[in-house]
Amino acid sequence: MLGLVLALLVTMVGTYFWADGKLHHENVLADYPGRPAAGKGTNWLIVGSDSRAGLTDADEQNLHTGSAEGKRSDSMMILHIGDNGNTLMSIPRDSWVQIPAHQDTSGSGKTIPAATHKINAAFAAGGGRLLVQTVETNMDLRIDHYAEIGFAGFVGLVDAVGGVEMTIDQPVKDKDSGLDLQAGTQTLNGKQALAFVRQRHQMADQDLGRMRNQQKFLGALAKQAASPTTLLNPFTFYPLVSAGLDTVIVDDDAGLTDLGSMFLAMKGVTGGDGKTITVPIGNPDYHTPTGESAVKWDPAKSKAVFDAMKNDTAVPDVK
Asked: Between residues 213 and 15, which one has the greater pLDDT?
């Protein structure tokens, strides 16, 4: 019995260090003048990027991802973990916000002045660090941790858990993402899941409808990944950890225990133990001075939500 206990301990410790060594860290939470003070609770900025890193040309064609270089933010969420309930808040990628002044990443050394753009332009121009600063300054909310995953990591994660069971309300056929699903309960593989969380063209509210699908899918994925049949089976557990951590980027201070806390909080929120919301919107079809269509936040309602997250008070019910 003692030998068995020791063997289990050695396996657990070895697994921890093996998994911890797979984490990819980036210094995305750098300080800057005027950065919001630390609030109460913990705020994660979770980013799904359209990075094609790890995909072959055949993968790109099969997954309908295109072959664009670099990476842009395909989805953004803030997960607030606190004593007064956890909240998962989606941020429309077309949100019209001020992007702070920043260094040109092309190597010219030039400073790009602050300007108003869609929020996903911050990620494209300066990666996670500029996106974090943009979120913080527009919400007056400090981000404590950061997690980012690209297309390849997402597909691998879904396939590692054996697919994710979803109930599709109506048939979906989208040529851009390659999605072709019938209505009803079914198990989505990695390719189908990626198309599901990306497609938006058959929805009346486009990106806003897509964010609802993303929240719904994350809940189903968290439930599947945390099930005993996944965690207690080494043939699913190790591929799951490997697929998830190989392509995840986190901030310098985030460790496995932090990721575990984030994962459990997300599972609870999407399972009904918390709130899933979108940044309160004042105008979903704001016409910018440059002729683009963007999303403007509702100033009063959004401030109430951001303040509640900062102070770890109950997040108000908003629409």
From this structure: 213
Identify residue 18 by its one-letter amino acid code.
W
Q: What is the pLDDT of residues 21-36, one digit of tens each?
A: 667 788 999 899 999 9
Q: How many domains does the chain have?
A: 1
CATH at residue 84 = 3.40.630.190
Largest CA distance in the chain: 72
Q: Decide if 13 is inside a domain.
A: no
Which positions ≥6 away from 115 have C-beta within 8 Å?
98, 99
Helices 2-20, 234-246: inter-axial angle, 10-degree rounding: 20
Identify whether 3 is part of a domain. Answer: no
Q: Is 170 helix (H, G, I), strand (E, B) or coil?
A: coil
**Do residues 263 and 226 lie in contact, with contact meaning Cβ atoms separated by under 8 Å?**
yes
Residue 123 lies in a domain: yes
Give tens-digit pLDDT for 89-134: 989 988 999 999 888 776 677 888 888 999 988 888 888 999 999 9
Q: Is 2 among the domain residues?
A: no
Neighbours of 263 (CB within 10 A): 17
Is there a contact between 36 and 14 (Cβ–Cβ < 8 Å)? no
| C-alpha–C-alpha distance, residues 212 and 172, integer Å | 15
Task: Give CA separation, 54 vs 50, 108, 210, 219, in Å.
Answer: 12, 28, 25, 25
Q: Residue 29 is part of which domain span? A: 23-311
**Which tokens go with 210?**
């897509």
What is the DSSP pairing of strand 115-118 with strand 96-99?
antiparallel
Q: Tell whether pTM > 0.85.
A: no
